[in-house]
Design a protein that fits this description.
Layout: H1 13-21, H2 34-44, E1 51-54, H3 62-68, E2 72-77, H4 80-89, E3 94-98, E4 106-110, E5 115-119, H5 127-130, E6 133-138, H6 150-159, E7 161-169, H7 188-195
Parallel strand pairs: 1-2, 1-6, 2-5, 6-7
Antiparallel strand pairs: 3-4, 4-5
Length: 196
């Protein structure tokens, strides 16, 4: 259960950008994630018109899927290329605007207004900028965050959640001494201590 060799692992923002540039994105799922379909009822909990957050969203196809169901989707991603590919691959028109509170950040928003994707570091976001969310789909974010930043990440996520939020989290289980990640190994005990 010890995260062993991964404790001090660091993947820089530049390395993530390079993965997108080189199309080295084995983590992207063209068909969407089967676990979201399986647990969609848990996320929605019988509610309509939710605000759903996609941390480190990449170009996740589930963003369009949930928006088409009538939900508002907000994502954050450092790779502008990933965000532009998302809009292009779904033939969605969008507009781009700066985010005044975050130097160098952009918001790419579908013209329909129900998908807003922020191009910046997730740690630059706050509820005063993006509001709070009824649901979070964390499919590859916690496992991509550098292990030393997990507490910072979890604390931020908690501040972005409404009282009755549903948080769906996907992790991977393997021997962290045999693979260096990402995705990093996050033991269940750590998830419990991070999120309570």
């Amino acid at each position: 259960t010890d995260i062993g060799a991964q404790k001090d692992s660091v993947v820089t923002e530049e390395e993530w950008l390079r993965k997108w540039e080189m199309n080295n994105i084995g983590f992207h799922k063209e068909q969407g994630h089967p676990l979201l379909q399986k647990y969609l009822d848990v996320l929605l909990n019988g509610r309509n018109g939710l605000r759903i957050f996609f941390p480190l969203c990449g170009k996740a196809v589930e963003m369009k899927w949930l928006a088409d169901m009538g939900h508002s989707v907000v994502g954050v991603e450092v790779s502008e290329q990933a965000l532009k590919e998302f809009f292009a691959e779904h033939s969605l028109p969008y507009c781009e605007e700066p985010v005044p509170e975050i130097s160098g950040a952009k918001k790419l928003q579908s013209t329909s207004g129900n998908i807003s994707l922020y191009c910046c570091s997730i740690y630059d976001l706050s509820s005063s900028i993006v509001g709070k969310f009824d649901g979070v789909w964390d499919r590859g974010a916690l496992v991509a965050v550098n292990p030393r930043d997990r507490q910072r990440y979890a604390s931020l996520m908690i501040t972005l959640m409404e009282k009755n939020s549903s948080y769906l989290l996907v992790t991977v289980s393997y021997d962290p001494n045999k693979h260096k990640g990402p995705p990093f190994y996050v033991p269940e005990s750590e998830i419990k201590s991070l999120f309570g």
